[in-house]
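Consider the tokenized backbone below.
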């Protein structure tokens, strides 16, 4: 397979991988991390609010540590040992705080008390997770984990209130940690980010340490709502965001997965890693990082891993190393 990585500018931004330890999945070994990461690259997972804040009392007890499950602690230690950077997505809900569910599908921290507690959980994550490279607030709010909202205006209002609370509290203890906001999935994210900053009051516009969270699962197929190829939808979204003078860097906290597999079915001799790399950089150079979803074999997404069930590099894994880590 012919690769063209040498023709591209070197990545100044961290690449990275996502793992699903939060879902009870396997922990990558230090050797596996060394295989696919450069020093400082991100490894991303979700440290659930309900697991970390079992007493819902952090907002009134700043000295109290959170609970980091054993598997998550092992992940963080392995990433640190491999020279990587842990990147933690914050979510979702917490029954200990009186919420009806831990899932992000049908609930959201949308009261002053819940926002304060969520922000305190974020601060504790920042204090306790080793080799921390950044945090992100929520996951795919415009998709699966929509908070149960039927009213988009209320959804975005509540999200900005939560995001602002987290940013404000985290900045009190660390001024330089990247914080990622927006929690989007899909190619059509232009109006979402414009609205967050211009209508619903999210702070952080043009702050170089506030990044825009995207999951650009692009496969070259028609994006049905707009009847356009998803690459074009993405390009238009970026153009709209920049036209509104929003200069914040993007970070793809997930990409690849089924979208990459679907693309390869139409391009049997192609290299999706290279195409994504070149298309994203060509569209907009202001990227903070790319986090491939996901690192290890996952039976619910069998074609996504950089490693297969035996621990060997997959074809995607080989492409990833050549494209991002040489």
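A designed sequence for it:
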């Amino acid at each position: 397979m012919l690769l063209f990585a040498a023709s591209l500018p070197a990545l100044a931004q961290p690449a990275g991988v996502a793992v699903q330890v939060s879902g009870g999945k396997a922990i990558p070994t230090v050797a596996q991390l060394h295989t696919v990461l450069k020093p400082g690259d991100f490894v991303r997972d979700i440290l659930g609010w309900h697991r970390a804040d079992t007493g819902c009392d952090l907002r009134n007890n700043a000295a109290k540590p959170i609970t980091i499950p054993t598997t998550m602690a092992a992940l963080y230690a392995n990433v640190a040992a491999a020279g990587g950077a842990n990147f933690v997505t914050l979510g979702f809900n917490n029954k200990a705080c009186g919420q009806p569910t831990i899932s992000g599908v049908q609930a959201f921290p949308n009261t002053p008390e819940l926002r304060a507690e969520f922000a305190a959980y974020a601060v504790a994550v920042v204090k306790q997770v080793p080799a921390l490279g950044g945090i992100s607030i929520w996951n795919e709010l415009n998709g699966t984990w929509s908070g149960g909202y039927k009213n988009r205006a209320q959804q975005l209002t509540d999200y900005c209130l939560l995001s602002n609370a987290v940013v404000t509290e985290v900045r009190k203890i660390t001024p330089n940690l990247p914080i990622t906001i927006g929690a989007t999935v899909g190619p059509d994210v232009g109006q979402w980010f414009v609205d967050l900053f211009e209508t619903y009051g999210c702070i952080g516009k043009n702050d170089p340490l506030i990044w825009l969270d995207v999951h650009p699962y692009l496969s070259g197929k028609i994006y049905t709502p707009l009847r356009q190829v998803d690459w074009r939808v993405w390009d238009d979204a970026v153009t709209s965001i920049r036209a509104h003078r929003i200069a914040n860097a993007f970070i793809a906290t997930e990409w690849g997965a089924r979208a990459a597999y679907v693309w390869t079915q139409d391009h049997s001799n192609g290299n999706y890693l290279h195409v994504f790399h070149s298309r994203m950089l060509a569209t907009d150079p202001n990227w903070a990082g790319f986090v491939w979803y996901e690192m290890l074999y996952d039976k619910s997404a069998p074609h996504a891993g950089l490693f297969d069930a035996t621990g060997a590099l997959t074809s995607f894994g080989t492409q990833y190393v050549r494209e991002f880590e040489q």
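Residues 242 and 248 are 9 Å apart (CA to CA).
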